[in-house]
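Please check this record.
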Amino acid sequence: MQIEVNNVTYTYNKKRFDEFEALKGISLKIDKGEFVALVGKTGSGKSTLIQTFNGLILPTSGYVKVDDFIVTGDKKLKRQLLKKESKEVQILNKKKAYLLRKKVGMVFQFPEYQLFADTILKDVMFGPLNFKVEENLAKEKSINALKSVGIDESYFERNPFELSGGEKRRVAIAGILASEPDILILDEPTAGLDPNGKKEIMNLIKDIHKEGKTIILVTHDMDVVMDYVDKIFVLNDGKLLEETTPNILFNKENILDYSLEIPTFYKFKNLLKKYGFCKDLSKINEFNELIDIICEDKND
């Protein structure tokens, strides 16, 4: 596996009056090249968990292992785990731990939080330069990244804060891609976008996935989960409730117990059943298939 989460807990404001346990013994595994989603109602621990994947947050107990990197706030546990590893892995974790941020790129929900330079190109170049890439090469990588997300060269000298929401999101993604991460994490990538903008961003992410990168989404948009994701981790109250697939999750009778929005497709299926459509729809998982079975029923 590429990411292993082992009995991870995280407590905000530990030993203070407002102490809050956000993660409660979560364990899961993500394989290289997977396209997965973390879902659950607000406050379930999704955003906290993804920040342990690149060390922005150190688990209070337990650990996250990303390839050869070990992430934990428990120093004793980390020493014990590293004792079992090779000298190269020990050096990587002690002297080059910053490279984890290069391996695991993260795009936050509000892209303007990641944009700060006075031009788009300078903004995207920041990542490679921060990882000690020579300036000309950093510029080349940044130009390629911007073109890959559909940002035209005529935009490169523009101020990023003059862009639309969808354009800002593309630039934020380019800023991560320029550092060539193996894993791309996106927190609510379609939030605030209109239907066309949502489709464009998700198709872009799909193309990035086809290049072999592992994609991890945090989202409340179940239509996105249904259309793009292979595996789902359902969280609630800081715990992992279930590891499943879209088809299994959205066909559950008790789906409303998970406090998740039902995708449009499944809402339509449920309405058909409610109003007496008799054909078996349990194995129908796409609108085209649904249209075909409705037409067949009409012709019978």
About this structure: The chain has two domains: 3-262, 263-300. Strands lie at 3-12, 20-30, 35-39, 61-66, 69-71, 104-107, 183-187, 214-218, 231-236, 239-244. Residues 233 and 243 are 5 Å apart (CA to CA). The radius of gyration is 21 Å.
